[in-house]
């Protein structure tokens, strides 16, 4: 056994009694009940052979027993001569990256998923990295395409039909919902952000893909209506109640479809000013989408992060933040947020597709850099 391994064992002996090695082990915020330590060495074939064991190592076939593998980096050889083994192991040279991903100790198993680029750690247990062959067959998502998201007020247990009259026939000419563009600055209106304070000069292309969402408001009780009809209905009630954050948020959705960034942000400032704290993620997600569309990504990250902090249990908030990081080409950060999206909503297919596309992109990029 090498001196390095013996030194590692000595460290464990100092931390736990030699006769049992029982007790808690804390690492990266994870607390485990340590019962025994097994030192492994390379086997005669390319596997791992058992060597010395300290503590209770008898229950290896017990279903309640989990063996955790530590991989120790040796530094005897010059840099570049090491052959690093990817997989479900934590290496000492991954500490900084592991902290960023809130790493935990993974349990070794009979089958290791295809590894990602060296130094990357799978954060979502049920989704491994695709193999190169799978990447060839995979239908890649167009990551540069803007994906519009919005948070329905129904997610806050609000019935939109109690705020907008969908039943009464419209007798008057079409109207558009206009919010107060001169609402004074407050701590809630986010005027310190460049995209908000300079909303009149935004390069915003609009989000016509949200048309159907807007037309289907109240669809459970009333038939689908045209965009002009919905806009008129919102305008009629907003004209009488400018302090309703629900109506202001719906008006902003209308202007997102129409491609009027300045008018949309006017309404979102109004919604943010009047909305209770626990409701602010509804207008924040809309604002994050507008800033993302306008390529003001730093502003979009700030706003989407605020939405996640207010309502971390909504998958769409995590997904929206992941989309912004993709636009910034911060793919590792995007993976974290797409994976947390799936933890909240495992069937969220757009997040799954984007994870696989990013993973294949990263592996292809790494392959091109290899000599």
TrEMBL record:
User: What's in the keyword line of the UniProt record?
Assistant: TPR repeat
The segments carrying the TPR repeats are 315-348
Which branch of life, at top level?
Answer: Eukaryota
The record's annotation in SMART domains points to: TPR
- UniProt cross-references to InterPro entries, sorted A to Z: TPR-like_helical_dom_sf (IPR011990), TPR_rpt (IPR019734), TTC17 (IPR052630)
Q: Name one GO cellular component term.
A: cytoplasm
GO terms in the biological process aspect are: actin filament polymerization; cilium organization
Its protein name is: Tetratricopeptide repeat domain 17
**Organism source for this protein?**
Phyllostomus discolor (pale spear-nosed bat)
**What taxonomic ancestry is recorded?**
Eukaryota, Metazoa, Chordata, Craniata, Vertebrata
């Amino acid at each position: 056994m090498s001196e390095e391994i013996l030194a590692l064992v000595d460290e464990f002996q100092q931390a736990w009694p030699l006769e049992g090695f029982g007790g808690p082990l804390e690492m990266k915020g994870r607390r485990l009940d340590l019962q025994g330590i097994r030192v492994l060495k390379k086997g005669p074939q390319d596997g791992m052979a058992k060597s010395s064991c300290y503590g209770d190592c008898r229950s290896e076939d017990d279903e309640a027993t989990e063996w955790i593998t530590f991989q120790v980096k040796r530094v005897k050889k010059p840099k570049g001569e090491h052959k690093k083994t990817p997989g479900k192991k934590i290496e000492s040279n991954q500490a900084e990256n592991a902290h960023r991903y809130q790493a935990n100790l993974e349990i070794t198993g009979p089958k290791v998923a295809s590894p990602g680029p060296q130094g990357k750690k799978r954060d979502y247990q049920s989704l491994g990295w695709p193999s190169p062959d799978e990447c060839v067959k995979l239908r890649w998502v167009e990551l540069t395409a803007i994906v519009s998201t919005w948070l329905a007020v129904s997610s806050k247990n609000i019935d939109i039909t109690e705020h907008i009259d969908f039943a009464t026939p419209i007798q008057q000419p079409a109207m558009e919902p206009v919010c107060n563009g001169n609402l004074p600055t407050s701590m809630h209106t986010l005027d310190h952000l460049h995209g908000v304070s300079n909303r009149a000069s935004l390069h915003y292309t609009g989000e016509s893909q949200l048309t159907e969402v807007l037309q289907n408001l109240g669809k459970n009780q009333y038939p689908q209506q045209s965009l002009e009809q919905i806009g008129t209905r919102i305008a009629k009630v907003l004209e009488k109640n400018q302090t309703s954050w629900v109506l202001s948020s719906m008006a902003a959705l209308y202007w997102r479809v129409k491609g009027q960034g300045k008018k949309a942000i006017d309404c979102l400032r109004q919604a943010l000013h009047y909305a209770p704290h626990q409701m602010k993620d509804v207008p924040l997600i809309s604002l994050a989408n507008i800033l993302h569309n306008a390529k003001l990504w730093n502003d979009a990250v700030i706003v989407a992060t605020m939405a996640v902090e207010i309502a971390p249990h909504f998958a769409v908030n995590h997904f929206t933040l992941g989309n912004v990081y993709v636009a910034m080409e911060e793919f590792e950060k995007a993976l974290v947020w797409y994976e947390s999206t799936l933890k909240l909503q495992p069937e969220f297919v757009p997040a799954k597709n984007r994870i696989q596309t990013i993973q294949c992109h990263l592996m292809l990029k790494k392959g091109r850099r290899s000599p």
